[in-house]
Write a structure and sequence with these properties.
The complex is a heterotrimer of chains A (about 270), B (about 260) and C (about 270). Chain A has about 270 residues and is an all-alpha fold. Chain A has 10 helices and no strands. Chain C has a 6-stranded mixed sheet with strand order 6-7-8-3-9-10, with helices on both faces. Chain C has a 4-stranded antiparallel sheet with strand order 2-1-4-5, covered by helices on one side. In chain C, helix 4 crosses helix 5 and helix 7 runs antiparallel to helix 8.
């Protein structure tokens, strides 16, 4: 047992080992599925790759992703528009925080997808129900991070600025905004991750409700349901999963990159 | 009691009451009990549910949570300990975790339905998968960041390898484990609801859709609020547990 | 007089597993500690003082040369070589008593004996009444006293102290210096008193406390000088004597330039 007592492995091994394991595992997987003749029943690497290629070429997956991402973007913005001001208010005014705390904690604990039935009733199935769920999911990370960011502003920075002769407007612009931005950015990243997860869940739920009704596929979730119940294409399903993961990574990486550029002083 | 202490007690109530009043107002304006069930109607629905399926549904959900979360945390912990004890294992497991983590558990639902069919196993599998990552990442991080000087100090004081492991490393990693367990519970809860709604056949999440099929929106609303309450309760339980443990082991005390 | 501790041509090079770069921390260290001696180690940042202590403690092995304690090679930590760390390294989940008792407990000393010894030591370092407090409830000075008691519980022949007073304020530091001298045996000549290797940034502290001051240079850490401090003991009253000031000036002149360089080069 070495627990924290040994040095990390050289970089070359750290990179090559998982790659090697991955390659071997993929090959074994392919062999296993082929030798048991379970193509079509179980996903297999070659099938996944072929499906993926076909779906990308035909634009099916890109269209669906675009639909989902569109709603994620809108929901993200709505979440920010509601969550940030509310969070700032709650963070600044202690009495407000104390009175709203139980309500906000309660609402935050409701998994966004639980709202689907009400959302469908209120907003219809066409896409706004999913948007509601996504906006709901995105609001709370913004709310929490905004209220924390305000509360954690270092009072000494404010004192220092005032001692240097800053006016109220200066304080807001030059001290409060930069101080709260890092936390807000992190909150934004979490909100985006939540939003992405929620849109898929919402689309899956809606998709299951309307499966087989021949409606237009609005997003990746509905596409997956259609593939599950109508086409029964296992390989495509796994490809969709991987695509979802890749998009998650890309979105987060993009935001992280943006964060580093906009906030170079923030040691993340 | 001073004014401040009274206010401290009353303020949260004001918030709750205020929201309920707002709700009543909206319901009154909408004038459609199916579209916007008023609070009173929802309360009645809740009482009726208590007498009916609610206890069974909650139990079913808790069972799903218990099995999925229990297995997930145990597996995540075991994998983290394994990765912590061997740099080679870590070199394989860590990238694997990084690769799988962005694939939201939700994305697994269709495959899970395909593998297990619609039923209890879908939410359980989802919860299991979702709970794995936070505890794994947190524990491994804790192990890697054990203050080297604590281990050095123990060795200089004459502790054997096993004493160091059991009496220094484990207590030092415990805060990370507890933090990871709390994070895991949070995502487990979300996975539970999503799994039951989309691919389950029992539990409170599934029941929400059931009521919706019959347009019993008052019950739907009640069920939604119950989901929130249960989620809150689960986190409170873990928080109290954390507080109790930190009395024995102060390094467990956190800001929350 | 026999040497309790000998370093013969000791060198230590660290190689980063990640990048393959190597840093020569120490080179050509030849040193013999006399029994009952108080040796201070000073030098600019990056001169390898802490590395030296690590090697003597047994936390790391030299890349060249050998470290001999009582004639035998040092390959692992041992209770005979007690260590005090700059960040105290107290076990946060154990009380003061729990920490002090750790050494004897780990070595299998029976409960009654070790509890008695712990009580004695806790009183001796001035922490009576705080046995059941946790480290986070103690001030920096008290934590260091606890660390001291913990080390003393094993009756080590060699005390290794790594900048033990760096993290406390100046007033506390003066008090702790006096206490350290008292516990060690600050008298003209004492048989059987422990040998001390004391790493510090404070040259005034080094000159005041020690019989000899080892001055290291940086990059790599080599012995620049071994200064004899011929001041009489007890030293506590000599803090402000001109003789001390003269010695401090002498040592400082040896490292002044390198210290200035270190400030610029130690950026992150």
């Amino acid at each position: 047992m070495s627990y924290a007592l040994t040095a990390p492995l050289p970089t070359r091994i750290r990179v090559l080992l998982p790659v090697a394991v991955l390659v071997i595992a993929t090959v074994l997987w392919e062999i296993a599925v082929r030798s048991t003749r379970s193509q079509g029943l179980m996903p297999m690497p070659s099938g996944i790759a072929l499906s993926g290629f076909e779906l990308t070429r035909s634009g099916v997956i890109l269209e669906a992703m675009a639909g989902s991402l569109q709603r994620v973007a809108i929901g993200f913005v709505i979440g920010a528009l509601i969550g940030i001001p509310l969070g700032l208010a709650v963070g600044t005014l202690r009495p407000l925080e104390r009175s709203l705390r139980p309500v906000l904690d309660g609402l935050r604990s409701i998994a966004p997808i639980a709202w689907i039935p009400m959302a469908i009733l209120w907003l219809g199935v066409r896409g706004n129900a999913a948007l509601f769920v996504v906006s709901y999911a995105a609001t709370f990370p913004f709310l929490v991070s905004a209220s924390q960011a305000v509360r954690l502003v270092d009072p000494r920075l404010i004192d220092a600025a005032r001692a240097l002769g800053a006016s109220r407007w200066d304080l807001l612009r030059a001290v409060l905004v930069p101080s709260t931005l890092p936390m807000l950015f992190t909150g934004a990243r979490i909100a985006l991750a939540f939003a992405w997860g929620s849109i898929i869940a919402a689309e899956l739920a809606i998709g299951i409700k309307i499966a087989g009704q021949g409606r237009n596929v609005a997003g990746i979730g509905q596409l997956m349901v259609e593939t599950l119940y109508v086409k029964r294409d296992v390989d495509a399903l796994v490809f969709y999963m991987l695509a979802i993961g890749i998009v998650s990574l890309a979105i987060d990486a993009g935001l992280r990159h943006l964060q580093r550029r906009v906030l170079p002083w923030d040691r993340q | 009691m001073t004014i401040t202490r009274i206010m401290r007690f009353v303020e949260p109530l004001i918030g709750v009451v205020g929201v309920v009043l707002l709700w009543m107002l909206v319901a009154r304006l909408a004038a459609n009990a199916t579209l916007v069930p008023p609070p009173a109607v929802v309360w009645q629905a809740f009482v009726a549910m208590l007498d009916g399926d609610l206890p069974r549904d909650i139990l079913a959900s808790l069972a799903h949570l218990g099995v999925g979360y229990g297995l997930g945390v145990a597996t995540g912990l075991a994998l983290a300990l394994a990765a912590g004890s061997s740099r080679w294992l870590e070199a394989v497991l860590d990238p694997l975790a990084e690769f799988l983590r962005p694939i939201s558990p939700i994305a697994w639902i269709p495959i899970a339905i395909l593998m297990f069919g619609v039923g209890r196993l879908v939410p359980i599998y989802l919860i299991f998968y979702a709970s794995l990552f936070p505890i794994f990442v947190s524990t491994l991080d804790g192990i890697r960041h054990v203050n080297r000087n604590l281990v050095n100090a123990a060795q200089s004081l004459g502790a054997s390898r096993s004493t160091v492991l059991v009496h220094v490393i484990v207590p030092a990693v415990l805060p990370s484990i507890v933090a990871g367990a709390r994070l895991s519970l949070g995502v487990a809860w979300m996975a539970l609801v999503a799994g039951e709604i989309v691919g389950g056949d029992s539990g409170i999440g599934w029941r929400i859709l059931w009521y919706q099929e019959f347009f019993q929106m008052d019950r739907v609303m009640a069920a939604i609020l119950i989901v929130g309450a249960l989620g809150l309760a689960a986190d409170s339980v873990l928080r109290s547990l954390q507080r109790a443990l930190s009395r024995v082991n102060p390094s467990l005390a956190s800001g929350a | 007089m026999s040497a309790l501790l000998e370093l013969r041509h000791v060198g230590k090079t660290y190689t980063s597993a990640r990048t393959g770069d190597s840093v020569e921390a120490l080179a050509d260290i030849d040193l013999a500690l006399r029994n009952g001696e108080f040796l201070a180690v000073v030098g600019p940042s990056g001169c390898g003082k802490s590395t030296l202590l690590s090697l003597v403690a047994g936390f790391a092995e030299p890349t060249s040369g050998e470290v001999l304690f009582e004639g035998a090679r040092v390959i692992a930590p041992s209770p005979a070589r007690g260590v005090i760390f700059q960040d105290y390294a107290l076990f946060p989940w154990r009380t003061v008593h729990g920490n002090v008792v750790f050494g004897p407990w780990a070595r299998g000393v029976p409960q009654a004996t070790r509890d008695e010894r712990a009580r004695e030591l806790i009183a001796m370092v001035g922490l009576a009444g705080f046995e059941h407090r946790y480290p986070h409830e103690l001030s920096g000075g008290m934590r260091q006293r606890c660390a001291l008691a913990r080390m003393l519980a094993n009756d080590p022949k060699l005390w290794l102290m790594d900048e033990p007073l760096a993290a406390v304020d100046l007033q506390t530091r003066i008090i702790l210096q006096d206490e350290l001298l008292r516990l060690w045996g600050d008298e003209p000549s004492v048989a059987n008193r422990p040998t001390v290797m004391f790493v510090t940034h404070g040259i005034d502290e080094a000159v005041l406390l020690a019989d000899r001051v080892l001055v290291l240079g940086r990059r790599p850490g080599r012995i620049k000088a071994l200064v004899e401090v011929t001041l009489p003991r007890p030293r506590a009253a000599l803090r402000t004597s001109p003789e001390v000031a003269r010695l401090v000036e002498q040592v400082w002149n040896l490292i002044r330039d390198e210290a200035a360089q270190a400030i610029v080069e130690e950026t992150h």
